[in-house]
Amino acid sequence: MSSQNEKLRWQQASGVLRAMHLEWWMARHSHKTVLALFNLVNSGVSMALLATVALVTQEAFIFPSLGATAFIIFHVPMAQPASPRNTLCGHCIGALVGLGALYMFGLQHADSAFLAGMDLSRVGAVAVAMGLTSCLMVAFNVVHPPAGATALIVALGLMPNISQIPILMAGVLILLMHAFVVNRLAGLRYPVWASAGPRPKREEPTEPDDV
């Protein structure tokens, strides 16, 4: 599996460089150097794009867990957690569950944990947010690890208003649009929605051998 991922990452980087007529650059550097710089440029450009939108609008189009999302969708773009379906649904679940946890523990109008400190209510909110987000992502087969960080960001009071959720999701969508352009430019069939990869098979219960 790691060999297949390495092949896809090299195809992605080399495809973009060929499209930019920079084939000579690949011949002069090792695979690891090319891939590392490819991730440097793509992750940096995607965060700069989101930060610029946030600067112009003065809205929270960028938040910490998008950094982890950027790494996943550029490093292993064809993996199921990197698909638009998993990315959008995962972050949506994390944000809504985190918001629900705030209301559950009466923290919707409280200062963030970084200003007011931790108390038992906040402990309960982050535990419910992370646990339920993990549960729902697995249950609906939309696993996206950075969404767990989104749940904590909301539950810790950094994005406590329901009006911030559409902006948060718009930031995710902008990142996915950038990933789609880059991956299709590289010649990879990055999905429009769901990954075409096989879903894990359920293990059938085995009957004990007769003694």
UniProtKB/TrEMBL annotation:
InterPro entries: HPP, TM_HPP
Keywords, comma-separated and alphabetical: Membrane, Transmembrane, Transmembrane helix
Limits of the HPP transmembrane region domain: 32-191
Domain of life: Bacteria
TM helices/strands, residue ranges: 34-54, 60-76, 88-105, 125-158
Pfam family, one: TM_HPP
Protein name: HPP family protein
Organism: Halopseudomonas salegens
